[in-house]
Design brief:
The chain has 117 residues and is mainly α. The protein is 82% helix and 0% strand.
């Protein structure tokens, strides 16, 4: 063995443990465990966040639905108000025409309106 770069003194000694390799293996195991724990925490957090996002989307859809219902109700009420306004204007014209016709009839007859008691 002396020809391979080992002296006779090294040949008599029992081979020692490779402490550097052992320390590196332990560090690698610790690093792998830490990485696994971090991965699990991240995966759990991702699951919670996805559930929260689904809930937010459901709430947003419910709010959109309610907003659509209120918008439709508002449009319906606006249509009713417009229809009632037209009806009121038509009735006001008819009342005005009826009063004018009544005044014309009274003018021809020369009578006064009856008094109420």
């Amino acid at each position: 063995m002396a020809g391979r770069g080992f002296s006779d003194r090294d040949a008599d000694r029992a081979p020692g443990r490779p402490w550097g390799l052992i320390v590196a293996s332990v560090l690698l195991a610790v690093l792998a465990a830490w990485t696994g724990i971090q991965y699990k925490r991240t995966a759990d957090r991702e699951g919670r966040l996805q559930a929260e996002i689904r809930q937010i989307y459901q709430e947003a859809e419910a709010l959109r639905s309610v907003a659509t219902q209120w918008r439709d109700r508002a449009m319906l009420l606006q249509q009713r108000v417009s229809a009632l306004t037209l009806e009121r204007d038509a009735l006001s014209r008819r009342v005005g025409e009826a009063e004018a016709e009544l005044a014309a009839l009274r003018g021809r007859r020369g009578t006064s309106p009856p008094t109420r008691r």
